[in-house]
Design brief:
It is built from two helices and four strands, in the order ααββββ. It is an alpha+beta fold. It has a four-stranded antiparallel sheet with strand order 1-2-3-4. A hairpin with a 2-residue loop joins strand 1 and strand 2. The longest helix has 19 residues. The protein is elongated. The N and C termini lie far apart (about 65 Å).
């Protein structure tokens, strides 16, 4: 009986750890958004996911960034960056700044 309990607890632990390492579209998008630097120069930063697609063992996440003056006056700057997100890394694939 004790061995059966040990096997059960071990299987629950291992399945729980494996599920934490699964990369979903939601977690990939969140990780990519966290990687985007702010606008700087006292500008407000607005980031949104424009496109996402699964590729290999990761996701391609395209993020649109709008930089605007805090008072709403003046020019707006828009850029778009595509990230490849896997469990182990986040790298820029395309940068349209």
């Amino acid at each position: 009986m004790r061995n059966l309990l040990f096997i059960f607890l071990l299987s629950v632990l291992l399945s729980g750890c494996a599920s934490e390492q699964d990369l979903t579209l939601e977690t990939a998008s969140s990780r990519a958004l966290d990687k985007v630097p702010g606008c700087g120069n006292d500008l407000e930063t607005f980031n949104k996911v424009n496109d996402s697609q699964e590729k290999g063992d990761g996701f391609l996440i395209t993020i649109q960034q709008d930089c605007e003056p805090k008072d709403g006056e003046g020019p707006q700057m828009r850029s778009e960056t595509t990230y490849y997100v896997t469990i182990n890394e986040i790298k820029i694939v395309k940068d349209n700044n």
